[in-house]
Amino acid sequence: MIIRAVPRISSILESDPDDLERALAGRGLWLDIGAATLRVRSSSSAFVAQLQAVYGQMPFVDNSNWADVHVELKPPAGLRRWIRPQVVLQCDGRELFDPFPADSPLPLFEWGCNWMIAHRLNDLLLLHAGALERDGLALLLPATPGSGKSTLTAALSQRGWRLLSDEFGAFDPQTGEFRALLKPIALKNESIEVIRAFAPDAIIGPRFPKTRKGTVAHLAASADTVARRHEAARPGAVVLPRWQAGSSTRWEPLDGHMLFAALAFNAFNYTVLGADGFRAAVHLVRQCPAWQLVYSDLDDAIAILHSAWPEVVERQRLGQQ
């Protein structure tokens, strides 16, 4: 019997930049991020290196039958192609966002894809939250912008927690599990250097100054996290983080009414899902213990989370019996 080895699919990081550029200019690249697939085409000269920097562990797939989101990065028509060059993002042939400088296609791609995901994946309850997995259980970090959510999510992803998403707590009402929407973590302003100091080996892409959110850089997912992006996680616990300069760490239980309001308020598509969204939020309130975490010291905040987690695991284990 002749046994033929299945050829290994190269990662984006391992691929020749010329091959990536040809694929992007042709049918595109398909980025399987777990619960969704993105198809991207591009004629941006800057995009290849930026893609390799933060999506490097994703497989190089240049031919597939399905994508949930289709986008294209290209120069705008007219003089902007030559004078102070810009890049635009088209979604299904429509330009829905303002142009970015030509050397900054990655943050435009990230924000545009996040917007499209939030409006497309209505089979899931999409909570605006960091989401990580440990012991088969999901830790959800819902928060408004400026709360330190991304910084804490990034730090936990460097301390033994598997990243599911920085932007979406993607809860599947049909299975009762959280699914990954694995994209780079967007770090902003001071958080970039905080995470560089906290995790010197972390892979952080180029800095983009003067965006509408200030300076932005993206933390890449690890190879193991990418390999496990189709592993779901049962609900574990919810923590509402709030970074406060100079504050001591405060860890306070959150009652069900406060938790429900936090989940519903931080959901992209709660009203779209109607009764299904309500039932999903109620299920999470009943299933998950919840706390408010106020912090200024990352190590202290993570130590508290680690010390609380065995109790969460035991509670969920007993709930399964």
Explained architecture:
With 321 residues, this protein is an alpha+beta fold. The protein folds into two domains: 17-120, no CATH class; 125-320, no CATH class. 33% of the residues lie in helices and 27% in strands. The chain has ten helices and 17 strands. The chain has helices at residues 17-25, 47-54, 105-120, 149-157, 190-198, 223-227, 256-265, 270-273, 275-287, 298-320; strands at 29-32, 37-42, 69-74, 86-91, 94-95, 100-101, 125-134, 137-142, 162-165, 168-172, 177-179, 185-188, 208-211, 214-219, 234-243, 250-253, 290-295. β10 and β11 form a beta hairpin. α4 packs parallel to α5 (190-198) and α7 packs across α9. The termini are far apart.
List the topology elements:
Blueprint: H1 17-25, E1 29-32, E2 37-42, H2 47-54, E3 69-74, E4 86-91, E5 94-95, E6 100-101, H3 105-120, E7 125-134, E8 137-142, H4 149-157, E9 162-165, E10 168-172, E11 177-179, E12 185-188, H5 190-198, E13 208-211, E14 214-219, H6 223-227, E15 234-243, E16 250-253, H7 256-265, H8 270-273, H9 275-287, E17 290-295, H10 298-320
Parallel strand pairs: 2-3, 8-15, 15-17
Antiparallel strand pairs: 1-2, 3-4, 4-5, 4-6, 7-8, 7-9, 7-10, 10-11, 12-14, 13-14, 16-17
Helix pairs in contact: 4-5, 7-9
- Oligomeric state of the chains in view: single chain
Q: Biggest sheet, open or closed, and with what strands and sense?
A: 8 strands, mixed
Shape, please? Answer: globular
**What is the average of the pLDDT values?**
92
Taken as a percent bin, the fraction of beta residues is 25-35%
**How many domain regions?**
2
Poorly predicted runs are none
How many beta-strand elements? Answer: 17
First-last Cα distance: 47 Å
